[in-house]
Amino acid sequence: MSDEISLRDSMPRPTLRVATQGAPEAPRYPVIDAHNHLGTMTWGSLGAISGDWPKRPVSELIEVMDEAGVQAIVDLDGGWGDRLRSEIARYQAPYPDRFLVFAGVDAANFGSDPGFGETEAHRLRASAAAGARGLKIWKTLGLELRDRRGHLIGVDDERLDPLWMTAGALGLPVLIHIADPVAFFQPLDDHNERYEQLVRHPDWHFFPTRTSAHPAAPGFPSFLELIEQFANLLTRHPQTTFIGAHVGCYAEDLAWVGDMLDACPNFYVDISARINEIGRAPYTAREFFIRYQNRILFGTDAAPRVDVYRLYYRFLETRDEYFSYSLEESPGAGRWQIYGLGLPDDVIKKVYAENARRVLGIARTPAESTGAL
Ligand SMILES: [Zn+2]
Fold first, then answer.
1. pLDDT for the residue 45
2. Domain total for the chain?
3. What is the pLDDT of residue 53?
4. CB-CB contact of 235 with 263 (8 Å)
C-alpha cells in the first residue's frame, strides 16, 4: 500500500460520541499542589523545560495559581545551604500561605563520605532551621547512587537511618520517589507499552537488569527489587511520614499501594504525573480513592499552568469517558485514553487539600474554618 503511514505519524482522533462535561474551569474546593518543582524549570511556550529558574516573576505564578484555584504549591527544589535560603526567600518567606519549600540531600556526597547518613541528618537539621517544610528524595536512590566502594545504596540502606529518624523527630514529611514506571525496567521490544516514550528518552530506560544481587554488580536493580526495598523502608520507620510520589511509586498496581497504606499508617501518596496510569482503570482507581481518601495528596509534578490543573480536575471530578491525559497531540506515555473518576465531594475535598494540610502542617483558610467552603 503506497499511502501507508508509519505508526509514529499516526495520531488517531476518537470518533466516539458521548456526553461530556469537559474540564471544569475551577476546582470544586481549594487545591494544594503537593508535588511541584519551581527551582529547575524555566518557562517556554510549551511549558516547562529544564534550565535556569527563576525566569518569571513570582507574581505571575500567583496569578496562575489564583486562576486555577490553587491555594498553595509545594516546591521540592529547595536543596540545601544558600540555594535553599534563596528559594525560601523567593517563595515561602514573602508568601507563606502560597508556597512550601522542601529541602534535599547532597547525593553527590554519598560516593565519598562514609558517614553520609549522619551528614545528611545534620544537613536536614540545618535546612529545617532555615525554614524547610519537608525533605525531597530523588529516584536516584536505589537506582544509581553508589557508596565509596562503588556499591549501590539501596532505598532501605541502614546507613541512611539517621536521616529518616531525624526527619521524623523534626516532624518533616519525606516526599520520596523511587524507581519509575514499570515499563522503564522492561526490555525495549515490541511488547513495551511505553516504547515511544523510551525511544524519545533512552536515558529513562533502566535496563538491563543486573544479574547478580551483589551491590557492586553492573546494571540496574529490577523494579521489584526497588519496590521491596521501599516497603522495608516504610515499615522500618513508623515515626517518619513518607509521601510516595506518583501514587506511591507503583501506580500500575493499586492493590500493592493499598496493602502498603494498610500496613503503614506513616505512608501517604501523591497522584502527580500518573493520571495517565490510574485513569485507565477507573473502577479500581475510584475504589482506591474512596478507601484511602485520608491518605492521598493532590500533586501535578508539572510546571504550573491553568490548563494542566483543569485536566486533573476533569479526571477527579467528572465522569467523562475516554479523553486524553495530556495536552499534547501525541501523549507522552502511550496511546491510551483515560476516564474521569467522578469522586464524591467529601473525597475530593480531602484529596485536594485537607490531607496535605494535615501532613504538611498548613493552617486552614479563614473561609474554610468558618465552614463557608
Ligand atoms: Zn517531581
1. 32
2. 1
3. 46
4. yes
